[in-house]
User: Fold these one by one.
Assistant:
Number 1:
Amino acid sequence: MTTDELIWRIAGGSGDGIASTSQNFAKALMRSGLHVFTHRHYPSRIRGGHTYTEVRVSADPIRSRGDGYNFLLALGDSFARNPKEGAYYGNEEVKPLAENLDDLRDGGVIVYDSGLLDTDDIPDFDERVEEHGWHVYDIDLRSIAREHGREVMRNTAGVAVTCAIAGIEPQAIKSLMDDTMPEKVFEPNMSVFDDAYDVVTEEYDADAPDVSVPTGSHDEEQVLISGSDAIAYGALDEGCRFIAGYPMTPWTEVFTIMSQNLPEVGGISEQVEDEIAAAALAIGASHAGVKAMSGSSGGGFALMSEPLGLAEMTETPVVLIEAMRAGPSTGMPTKTEQGDLEHVLYTSQGDSHRVVFAPADAEEAYRQTRRAFRIAYEYQLPSIILYDQKNGGELQNVPASVFDEEPNPDLGSVLTEAELADAPHDASGKFNRFQYDVEGDVSPRSIPGQEGGRYLATGNEHMPAGHISEDPENRVNQVNRRMSKMDTIRKELDGDDGERNFHYGPADADYGIMTFGSQQGTAAEAVDTLNEAGESVKLLGVSELAPYPVDEVAGFIESVEEVLVVEMNASAQFRGLTQKELGRFGEKLSSLLKYNGNPFEPGEIVEGFRTSIVEDGTLPGHETKFVPAAGD
Amino acid sequence: MSTFSAIGEDVERDRNEYTPGLEPQPTWCPGCGDFGVLKALKGAAAELGLSPEEMLVCTGIGCSGKLNSYFESYGFHTIHGRSLPIARAAKLANPGLTVVAAGGDGDGYGIGGNHFAHSARENHDMTYIVFNNEIFGLTKGQTSPTSPKGHKSKTQPHGSAKDPIRPLSQSLTAGASYIARTAAVNPNQAKDIIVEAIEHDGFSHIDFLTQCPTWNKDAKQYVPYIDINDSDDYEFDRTDRSEASEMMYETETVLHEGTVLTGRYYVDEERPSYTQEKQAIGEMPDEPLAERYFDDDYEWERVYDTFLDRHK
């Protein structure tokens, strides 16, 4: 077992406190100067069922969950249902141990709660332990927890055992528990911790494995943040004070964070009857002069197709969030996928248009959410943040200074009443809110209640003051004006150098890897591994999808011999978008796809690149090559 | 001075002030009941002295959806059945606005039925006018949720097998705090009811019977009506939920047998509006949220100062 990094997996039953325990563990290690990155895996049920969280710890910055893991803490599922013989979902009682063995690296450590788990129920357990050189600690965590507190505290016992084995200074964990627990809970937890810690040091000292956690330090203050946190905070800093939503996994996280924080800053959160209403409320609030957002996951976003088009036609700014999970239909509610790309790009009728961002990590999520609001309000159209279950739930350390930004309450192109008095009106006294002969093609708007600003907003085609009209000349003028805003936005996003997305690896590399959204960090680690092994590869991670960065992507593809496009869906949607937008290069692109519900690990991209590019580099790109993923 | 200086103006007004200067020729058929709604709304707005710019009229799709094309105010012509969620949010964003939502019986009781139930439940302070002509008009005469059982149309050639919706009873069950029925053939009563509804602090639902001379010549809107509040034959306490409920049930049962009853069916002045409820639990600011974006002196909180400690 290497000592330069620890990937600690805590497994148990859903509802057993796996998420909170791992979060505290990660935060304690971050405080001690390390870089951390977590990965969640959970079932679609309330209590019970196999769940785990990985915490990867390193002295150097980390971009992904890594390959496999090397330390298992198997707690047992306290809600396991004692299934009948031959139940299709298997023996749930032993899953926290049995389900996790495939990914455990050779030489790794297994700690399991012998109070709840019996290795006799796991076929070939002893043989596998011997074959892989695993170090096994069977400790009755449940009894230790019961003795000093309550059974639920076996989490604490497990963390203590981890500290003892991996050489983690207990004080970091203890002080964090002190911060987060009420005193009457904290005291018994400390007793449980000390007792469990002593069991290891007293009984297992002799055959301690070579495992220790690295030491590190941060140059500046860090915060432990998920993608969902970052999206919510980006919205708040951009002056968003209204959210409407309906719960759906995994979007619920952003909705929850916003709902809990908005009252503190005088904002409004509304949980409403369905997703059509949710998006419509966001539009209504925005129309009335408030920065507003809504969102959902695939199925709920499908319902938003209708209000999305209304926002485009009425030029009402709004930000919508789409948190992807495996589809189609309800798919796999708690498993990740990038299969909603085309759904988000093309949903809604007519020549519709919207801006789409796909942040790769928490830092990008914060910045891009702010940009999404700014563009939505400046250009009066919908912006969409497309992310997925993976980066929504991953926790990672981010410098606190990333959030040290000024708030922006600017509503964009809204006139004051004084300006409205001088603005063009039609003969009926209505404000020409949809003027088509305006600079930049953005016609300034008014807010209901403003003197001199009354107009009709309508989803029908309309004249400058909003009167419904099917006049052909006006129609063409209005369509041209609305569509041309996308060109302006493209120029703004491209900036001066045209490099608006994530470029990584040697600029003169022979081959390329392209990906979008949440797979960017994983692909970057794969690129490192490949280049260290003598290949010549660079990465383009696209996280601004519409308007598409045509020139930037074309330049990247032109500069290499072949490109492997990596994405988490079965129909190569991102590669298809690239070919559609560029209109060429089809023969240079091939696909690496994964759609089993789990994100790529860096090693899978390395393997996919070797199979597809190195060993068979001459195959025409239009044939999608799929490298099946093993295990998770 | 407020950013929204049109709000709260108290000026004597003429109903013609709500007629667009560039009057678009209404696309409603001659004799359409929708003219009656427009006239009543103008009369009510004038009586209340509302500035056209402090009013937001949100409509759905269908003939009723054209209301705000012919009524001078801020308007939002939305999508089929969706006037309510848009209107609700505008009211939450700026409680100073006078918000009126309108839709047809298909729009309001069919495709938008879910929003109707929930808007009533939440008791948003707004007025909801449903143009009820018992037919889909703009799509040329299909059976609607309020069409009587047995109603034949091109899409129900053997006659509808469904009992019609009972909008008043549904509204009461859902939680509306002001419920009335009026008719285009009685513009004075209609205007008075709209005035009361706008003044009422809560969700006011008006089932507005509008005749459709083109597609539904048999509808009840053509038969004589009686104002229940002016008739000794129909005495009941309209603040009493169960008496109101009984009255509604009777009305909605005998409706097609001769007489149409109109008037105020239920008024609950005690129930706080949604805005008041939200403010009471600290989930809504006391000042209109929309004002804040125009206030140069307002200090906007930063995440860095307000929320980041919990992540350290």
Number 2:
Amino acid sequence: MGFFLETLFGGLMVGMLYSLIAIGFVLIYKASGVFNFAQGAMVLFAALAMARFAEWFPLWFGFESQILANILAFVAAMGVMVIVAWLIERLALSKLVNQEGITLLMATLGIAYFLDGVGQTIFGNDIYKIDVGMPKEPLMMLQGTFQGGLLLSQEDLVAALVAAGLVVVLAIFFQKTATGRALRAVADDHQAAQSIGIPLKRIWVIVWSVAGFSALVAGIIWGSKLGVQFSLSLVALKALPVVILGGLTSIPGAIIGGLLIGVGEKLSEIYLGPMLGGGIEIWFAYVLALVFLLVRPQGLFGEKIIDRV
Amino acid sequence: MFYRENGQFKSSYRADQQIFPIAQDRIAILVLLLVAFIVVPLGVSDYWMRAILTPFLILSLAALGLNILVGYCGQISLGTGAFMAVGAYAAYNFQVRIDGMPLIASLLLGGLCATFIGVLFGIPSLRIKGLYLAVATLAAQFFTDWAFLRIQWFTNNSSSGSVSVAGLNVFGVPIESPVQKYLFCLVFVVVFALLAKNLVRSAIGREWMAMRDMDVAAAVIGIRPVYAKLTAFAVSSFIVGVAGALWGFIHLGAWEPAAFSIDRSFQLLFMVIIGGLGSIMGSFFGAAFIVLLPLFLNQLPGWLGFSISTALASHLETMIFGALIVFFLIVEPHGLARLWSTGKEKLRLWPFPH
């Protein structure tokens, strides 16, 4: 029982991190109808920027404090992500307005490659550390209830809390601020929003910046767990089935989808894996999403697209 | 001046409907084939034959297959590598498990297995489209990556996980030297290109294109979406599967699942985009471009008189690929093939501008 719960919680934590990346997808899809394949590349890029700035700033400005370096690096990395967002809007998306979804998808694929290349050219391609002082020791819980107790990673716990906090912040931003309302208006209908004077271009830059912000948070958490390296952009490929499962337009969907996939992945690896030869984590999420698509194409919370023939 | 069609009158439907209606095109293709079959094997070094021309031919074939699905039928696929892998591993299994299996037969049977898997993963396309389908095809990619790595039966229980083929021959003629490999692939590519060209001109090809342009309207005028989409998946994965088998058997000789990773899928998609969606010719342009660009980028710093590290060169390569894709999507969504046909239009009018 203890082992099962451990696996379950492990899955939930990983799932929370998948959701964090998935939220970036959903934000952009909601506000511009672009299925952003570059989200993974953005996570890698943001994490690389963060890791390297935290390393460089103390050298450049001659101070010692790790905390100050982290704060400055975070601000600088966020600045870089805003610039990236602006450039993407300026150089690619504004020229592809009114194209089909497939064209936009392929454009984001190109952006993903470009960001991967640029990021590694500027920031280097080794494995870098991000150290934001997350607690590393595991936590023993419920020793009285089960034999052997429940072993939880504090790092995962903190990560999950941060992710949950981010979701709350995003929800408030979307619901309470004027910009948030404008974003939701654009999501509902581009043309109507434009005709009442909402500047579409600025909104897109904001959305991509917010997506960059969530990429940065995801990148820091994943990066301090696994180290910042190229494989980070592959972790983001896991976020695709998450959004499919949750529905492309729903932030709660992204979170629940992420949790489901995280848990499903871990449990299946432990309980089904030995029968199938192991390593089924690679495809489990995708096959789950695929099967789900056949039953309910719009995902758990997605909007149903009515398409009569 | 020379590229004029006036005076070439067609007096029968047959003449009107041939693949290359203009005499100059026919001559150009004939010359191209003669060069490819006779001049190239005589005049090109073994290195070029082995390292550039053979991969170019095989990747063109795969791009051709993918183009049928993405360019002609509008079903985006990110799982091309998976279907190549299925073709390669299936052909390998036919080759090693059945004694005296002819090479060509096992390649084609490999293609057939890829067809089966392609249709299987194409079934979701009946309910989902566009973006969702892209994710569904990724499922194929990850699943096959895993299957060929973990399921021992597919690799004939090889301990290292990689498989190899040796002693290839067709009708007693060995396929060993670079020239023989090149010619073998060339024959395949020419035959398949001709078949594909005719398929997309035929009724089924027009159904695919109607499906791509507007599926609802196509269904209204009586095109069965199920049939159109699944045939596109079948034909496409057959060609891709054969290309995969050729890649494993002829080009690599020994391979492991990484040879057909997701990067290969993306690479092929780029070929199709840069070459031209919905164009047979474009598949060849795209493949040539993507095969030659890294070579060019590697040589360029040397020509300019400075050197860069290999890591930097590979990052620059990814960067340039990415930028080019966005560039092509914005400026010329129909790719190099459109530039080619614009060039031909201009030549028709030359030397008078109108």
Number 3:
Amino acid sequence: MATAPQSGIVELDVRTDEMLVNMGPQHPSTHGVLRLVLRTDGEIVSEATPHIGYLHRCAEKIGENLTPRQWIPYTDRMDYLAGMNMNLGWALTVEKLLDYDLPEKARHLRVIIAELNRIASHLVGMGTYGLDLGTFSPFLYAFREREKILDLLEDACGARLTYSYLTPGGATADLPPGWLQKLTAFLDQFEPVILDYHALLTTNAIFVKRAANIGLLSAEMAIDYGCSGPVLRGSGVDYDLRRDGETRYTSLYADYAFEVIVEKNGSYPRDHEYPPVPAEAVLGDCWHRFYVRMLEVIQAISLIRQGIEKYSLSTGDWGTPIKLSTKLPKGEAYLETECPRGQMGFYIVSDGTGPIPRRARARSSCFSNLSVAPELIRGCLIADVPAIVGSLDIVMGEIDR
Amino acid sequence: MSQKQVLERLQQRFGDCVTRVESDAIDPWVEVTPDGLTELCRYLRDRDDLRFNYCNSISVVDYCDLDGKASKAGWAPHLEVVYHLSSIPSKRTLVVKVMLPRWKDDVAGQLPELPSVSGVWSTADWHEREAYDLSGVWFTGHPNLQRILCPEDWVGHPLRKDYEMPLEYHGIRGR
């Protein structure tokens, strides 16, 4: 086999007392096929270079050969843990280009589905983060609850993992009869369980020791590196696209009461009900990124409850999907939505010659979130590397595109 | 300040470098020449009343005349590098575009050059590497411009419209 030229900054000039350590591409704590090349001096990591691209599935190239509705299933295979949110992003972008307005019922349906998927995604993020830090049971408990959400999504769209439901123009079908009752029953059962998760992880002394004051990311650096989602808000930046984004997206959430989960003046919204921030934790560390996700699960429950009520009261229908071969007008549209992992942006460019876009681009949140990892890892212990990478909650399918 | 005013102000401030302003598009955009790009970006980031401190995305669109549709659709073959910016303090967005020839000096294989903005926003570091890897734009002044998604020794830039998949790579059959 021919040898490929060595790449990256780390590989060059290694001192004799230093060592190069490869973490991944198949290491369980790298959350997918991520290869981290670490330059270590004893236990201290002096430099880290992430190598991505092992999954590289050419999603953008495929998008430039399919019509927008045909590309919907590919978008949810990018971030396979939050497929519905990805569908939503692309659907809204196409609607922005077509200047299509949604009926009210479809808007509430989208909020319910997107927030439900957000819970499922954060549960995986939480469970696997516990796994990274050496505890196994929270992982099982998280997946137990996630299964119930997947059952609900399966009822709605017919698939368990590769679910794609939201589509340009609305959704592929209405919610099945009795689905909302099942959803309410699930929420009632799930809400008290979250306190167990907090007891298992958030306030657990070992967990706090391993996550607090590790991988500090300042607000300026988070913005400079284009971090988004819980990574950005964990650093104390009050920015959430559901409130601050484009009108086309924020109008979905316009009638909903919610507060952005971010630390303000030393406390989080709803701080009184859930465990307080431990004294060791510093704003912008791994613990805060985890905590923001945990609180967002509770917030999503409240949003779904509001959504159920609004959906039942609203008249009209759940939307008509656009035709597979709808001709795209000349123009371009870019829209970002707040996915569980951060801001997921889609960019569609049409030259007006047919139904296939000239450019279908996905700006993925994890791509930017991961690019800050070398800064966070520099100078930490090897054992902290999984804690830092895990706290970014990456999905490689989204990064590799 | 509305988006329109931002665009007008950029046109006044940068005069010759800003070659086109499209304020009626779905996402209003401003076109800048490659020479004026870094200065404009720095201005956008640093001015207190603009503060475009967040670079969302750097995309490249390839306009290539493969099937002869170009003359009908009314454009000439070129590359467009599109910068989507937003400002966290003021919650505004802005699109900056740079037009490039598909190949430098019209020699096929010579990548067109564009100054890097990775010194302005650190996000641009990886995004420019991706743009170079997939669409073939050479960013001058980038600290580490290497392929990021494809292997180091990959030939060609997959998101170019006229890209042809290699028939063989290290003994692996291509198609």
Number 4:
Amino acid sequence: MAEVLVLVDHVDGAVRKPTLELLTLARRIGDPVAVALGAGAEATAGVLGEHGAVKVLVSDAPEFADYLVVPKVDALQAAFEAVSPAAVLVVSSAEGKEVAARLALRIGSGIITDATDLEAGDGGPVATQAVFAASYTTKSRVSRGVPVITVKPNSAPVEPAAAAGAVEALAVSFGEGSTGTKVVSRTARESTGRPELTEAAIVVSGGRGVNGAENFPLIEALADSLGAAVGASRAAVDAGWYPHTSQVGQTGKSVSPQLYIASGISGAIQHRAGMQTSKTIVAINKDAEAPIFELVDYGVIGDLFTVVPQLTEEINTRKG
Amino acid sequence: MSLRIVVCVKYVPDATGDRRFADDLTLDREDVDGLLSELDEYAVEQALQIADGADDAEITVVTVGPEDARDALRKALSMGADRAVHVEDDDLHGTDVMGTSLVLARAVEKTGYDLVICGMASTDGVMGVLPALLAERLGVPQVTLLSEVSVNEGVVTGRRDGDTATERLEASLPAVVSVTDQSGEARYPSFKGIMAAKKKPVESLDLEDLELEAGEVGLAGAWTAVDSATERPARTAGTIVKDEGEGAKQLAEFLAGQKFI
């Protein structure tokens, strides 16, 4: 069976969930060979093996942390040349897309980004994408070279599948351009204890209707009752009520959770572009005319300052 | 010495209109108004600020697109860019991101540059990979997705906010930079700027000027193919209740029924 290269997204050896989803998709196409780079690379092998990686190519060279993007492209290219895979899969993070694109160009292959599903086809993998603010669904293929495809988080279930997960050292020779952009410092984001927005199964977002940073704890409490991530609309972020890293929408993050709860968000096209592929959509808004209600599976026309705390309490009681 | 800044911009369909596909599964540009991609306004703004802080700088704005794409150039010129380059050729129809990066790289090289600035992504394709591809093609550092950027004595520095960490980056010019919508609000063109823009030079280039063959770009030269595009079926109307005291309870009931609680 053909091999499929999967670039591992991990933090100091802790594999992030979207990579495990990629392994599920990779198995539809062939035998996953994982590529883990940077500090802790070898520590990823256990969990990758449990999720179907037949081989884990590792390199923990300091270049991956000290310089931006290009060292990872050099390494992925080295893995590509060592394995000759049928496809290369990468998580659709900002960095993942940049690494994938540069690799694709180097190996003379087309790239598809932000796939929401992947299946084996006669002429190679077929990718599903949601385009034009998710008003269209497209099926696309890479028509030249070995398909390089980035996949959005939450596009596939995490399915364990035992495989060897044999660790092999990856020899990388870094090119001249790899040290072009120096990472002078790196500050880890302070953990909120909540799941990361783009990979969370449930997202609870607040918008203009939250009416001030001081009211965002209402949204956070609801999120915590559901084990959810917190998002915000652009209006709330631009007003300074919540950090930009939590912005859901065309110019912020695109999310695709199992459940999306929008509170005090009208549902402008900008916001819809970032959440419309959510599986179940719920809205709480006092304006019955808000466009968000066109999207919902369940909507409550009401004051979020009443409904949200009551809902939080109700959930906590039911769980209690 | 003059700092040569090139800003790459895109003319995109207005996202508030109905965007659709043409029969060849490329974007239907006939029935929808276009404009300068909002995310590129931030790139123009940062170019203007960097130019303001330099002894001597010239900003050239470049776009690849049909005749109407000139509107995007005019907008950037009215904001304050000095001159524009419009790459226009019938054979460019259907060009994918690989082809676009090739055309832009040639146009940028022909123009001459110390610094290339792009928006973080276009608001239509939203791939966000073009700046990285451009850096790869030009063989210069990529300093991308910056929420803060400055240039001093031939060195570009910036802040990149990633998923898990914030990084401070540094690279020597020449370099390719991309900026996010957090880099600073874009200015509105003044009346004076709009009038001045009419007199600014707009150079037109075609594939021959860039020494490119038709087969390297366009739909035929694309490295990806769209097999089908289906309009997403309208969502089946959801349940909507008015809160008369029981709204939260009803919603909790729904969430429990869906096994979220």
